[in-house]
Amino acid sequence: MSTTHKAPVDTRTEASKGERIADWADGRLGVYRSGFLLRKVFPEHWSFMFGEIALYSFIVLLLTGVWLTLFFDPSMTETVYHGSYVPLQGVPMSQAYSSTIHISFDVRGGLFIRQLHHWSALIMIAAMCAHTLRHLLHGSFRKPRELNWVIGFVLLIVVTLEGFVGYSLPDDLLSGTGLRIAEGVTLAIPLVGTYLTMFLFGGEFPGHNVIGRFYSIHILLIPGIIVALLTVHLILVFYHKHTQHRGPARTENNVIGQPLLPHYAAKAGGFFFLIAGVLCLLAGIAQINPVWTYGPYRPDLISQGSQPDWYMGFLEGALRAMPAWEFTVGGYTVNMAVLIPGVILPTLMIHVAAGWPFLEAWVTGDKREHHLLDKPRDHPTRTAFVTAFVALYLVLFFGGANDVLAEKFHLSLNEITWMVRIGFFVVPAVVYVITRRVCLGLARADREKLLHGRETGRIKRLPHGEFVEVHERLDRRREYTLLSREEYKPLPAPVAEVDGVPNPNLREEKRRYLLSRWLYGNQVPKPTEQEMREALAHLDHSANGHAAVNGHGPAAEHAEIGAQRSGEGQEADQELL
């Protein structure tokens, strides 16, 4: 019979203070059971850094924004400047503009913080655009990430709006011109345009309330929305697990990479300080938005070469390129010269980009979960469409600088405007065709490398005198990656009737069929298993002087690697290198 001996009370060791705190926290937060989150795996690829750049720039924006609120006065009350900047002394201006000049010249470090805030905004929006393009080109928007794609895209729009609102706060001549354009675009909206204008500006432009209203929107409303959307976005990224590129041991059911702690956290922390350092370097040596050179806003003044921040350049270009066109309906003037480029075109572009995942899912009927990414060349139509979309944006962007281009290159302003109008239709079409052909060419090159090996640059003379270049078999990792890509095929043609019964969904199926042919038609097929057996046997024969016999050599074994991988069963949900 066994007995249990308890240690005397006076000899028991008391739990340490750290252990007691941990036990207290676990009883209320369940920290012990959440330890698996610290081992969450994140794959590594340079393209994944765009989202981190945007996040870290946002952190810098919040820190510098809080500092600027301590000195900025969002009032449109008129005052006369008597500060240290001599060229503006005695000039009437608003309190908002005066406080901006005061921050720039009289507050220690004020100009540096202003420029750091502005550079962070520009870099954040640029990183978010690159992040969005990466998702489009690699197909990471597919199930189960459609909702997260919409959240991310809304986040991009909200951040762009936040940038425009913040850009308008100094009440200088340049930002006031941008506000004037925004007021014109708002007025061009039928039926509700005048009401929206009164709501925003509090009366006739420029009014006395717009800066104060924009200030509240800029520091409270929109940042709150951004933080909420960003939190949900990151939670969904964490929940769905990260996408990864195809490669050996990578499947739809696992993640290959580094754990959150300590590897990923250490790298992310270092990357944050690197981004912050680069932003500080830009703020210190690259001047941006020198509001003192523009002067305070006056409705009767405008300067040549007035350009908004880059993310609003496409809207400026669209407005400049659109011909004058207006008509009257029921006594109301409809200004199509502003409505089309300022309202309809941006709305259409937003809906096309945001709705692409749902269009592709509807066309294919694919309801599978996708955690492995495509290469852009593996989906030539999607890649060509995205590239054409970017080309359209760039045409309008350069159209917004037609006066600057005309001055710097000694060209006619009217000729540049006409080139933008023509390029709006021609350039995206040309870019689409070229990009699609390039993708198909790269896919064919990958197929050739699989079947014939890579070129080594070594020339060999055969016994009968012929000179040939020696080809080598691809690296096993590269070979598997090329063979594991997913093949996309168009839907089968719909039938008009089945057993004499008309197909009730014929029209919808025809539309899906035509769109699927556009998306997936004329794809470059992967080599078949038999083609790979023959090709690898030939390459091994060329390299070793003998071929595999009856398909049982090392080449044949490697040709079946894809089938072996798919038949090995489910891998662990997460896997470390």
Structural topology:
Blueprint: H1 17-29, E1 41-42, H2 49-69, E2 78-80, E3 92-94, H3 95-105, H4 110-138, H5 146-168, H6 173-187, H7 193-201, H8 210-240, E4 244-245, E5 256-259, H9 260-285, H10 291-294, H11 313-321, E6 326-329, E7 332-335, H12 336-364, E8 372-373, H13 380-399, H14 402-409, H15 413-452, E9 454-461, E10 467-472, H16 476-483, E11 497-498, E12 501-502, H17 506-520, H18 529-544, H19 554-559, H20 561-566, E13 575-576
Parallel strand pairs: 4-8, 5-13
Antiparallel strand pairs: 1-5, 2-3, 6-7, 9-10, 11-12
Helix pairs in contact: 2-4, 2-9, 3-4, 4-5, 4-9, 5-8, 5-12, 6-7, 11-12, 11-13, 12-17, 13-15
Structural class, judged by helices and strands? Answer: mainly alpha
How are the strands ordered across the major sheet? 1-5-13
Radius of gyration over C-alpha positions, nearest whole angstrom: 31 Å
Please summarize the sheet with the most strands. Answer: 3 strands, mixed
Low-confidence sequence ranges: 546-577
Helix percentage: 55-70%
Rounded to the nearest angstrom, the distance between the terminal CA atoms is: 50 Å
Number of helices: 20
User: Overall mean pLDDT score?
Assistant: 86
Tally of extended strands? Answer: 13
Enzyme class: translocase
Cofactor: heme
Organism: Streptomyces camelliae
Keywords: Membrane, Plasmid, Transmembrane, Transmembrane helix
